[in-house]
Structures are given as structure tokens and as C-alpha cells.
Amino acid sequence: MKRAEEMLLLENQLCFPLYAVSRMVTQLYTPLLDELDLTYPQYLVLLVLWEHGHQTVGEIGAHLALESNTLTPLLKRMEEKDLIQRVRSLHDERKMMISLTRRGKQMENKAVCIPQALIAGMQDSSLTEREITTFRRTLMKIMSVLQTGPAVAV
Asked: What architecture is the 13-119+127-143 domain classified under in CATH?
């Protein structure tokens, strides 16, 4: 067990490497997404819609761990770019249905190379594709635990 003063060293924090790597990986996406005139959050919304088809704002938020007040302005900008269409649900007018436009569907063909390009950009002699895949699986497990499990007690 570490001494109390060691617990507060930056190198002993889980949050810092996750935060730093998240920022760095997002930066790797930037030139790939710039070619498609997409931001990273717009890309994430498109990934959800390409995989699941039309969704409510709440369903997209659940997939991305985002609140509707964060998604709404993002979705409005995507609608202005003719990537998605927002329509009130016929069954429940409180819900907004989000679906891909023709342009949004066509974007999938242009984006299909992004995941492999990103992995290729991360690899070097000390980091393999298998390690990246294992790390992603571990992160997904952590995310699942944090979404469904108990909060940390202080």
C-alpha cells in the first residue's frame, strides 16, 4: 500500500492518463474529420446513427453518455449541415427523432477508413494493434462499471 503523500502524486492518479490520452486521441481524429468537415462530437453522433438507425435524442445521449442539453445544439448544427433530420415523434411529441439525411448516409462511405487510420497512427514498435484493442476493451469495461455500479465513497 502506498503512503498517504504518494497517493496524491500525479503519476498515481487514474484520471490523469485517461484525460491526457483522451485529448491526444481526439487530436489524432482532427485531421481525418477535417477532411469530412466534421467535429469529433458530430462524428460520434453519426457513428450511433450509422449503427442503430434513427434514434431519439435520449437514445443518442445514452449511447454517448451525454445529456440532451449538450446534444441539442450539436444536433441543430448537424441539421444545418444537412447530415441529420430532427422530427418530433408522432407517438410522443416530447421526443425528438433523429435520422440521417442522404448526405449523412453517404458520409459513412467516406468515414469507413477513419478507425483503421487512427489505429495505424497510434502504432509504433512499442504499441501493437492488439494492445490498443485490449485497452479499448478494458476502457469499455470501466465505462460499464461506472455507468451501472456504485459511486466511489468519500
From this structure: Orthogonal Bundle (1.10)
Question: Where are the extended beta strands (E) located within the chain?
Answer: 55-56, 84-88, 96-100
Backbone φ and ψ of 99, nearest 5°: -135, 160
Read off the pLDDT of residues 84-117 as tens digits, 9 standing for 90 and up.
Answer: 999 998 888 888 999 999 999 999 999 999 999 9
Determine if the pTM surpasses 0.70.
yes
The tally of CA atoms less than 13 A away on the side-chain side of residue 128 is 3
- 100: helix, strand or coil: strand
What CA–CA distance (Å, rounded) separates 72 from 89? 15
Cα–Cα distance for residue pair 127/130, rounded to 1 Å: 8
Residue ranges covered by each domain of the chain: 13-119+127-143
Q: pLDDT tens digits for 9-62?
A: 998 999 999 999 999 999 999 999 999 999 999 999 999 999 999 999 999 999
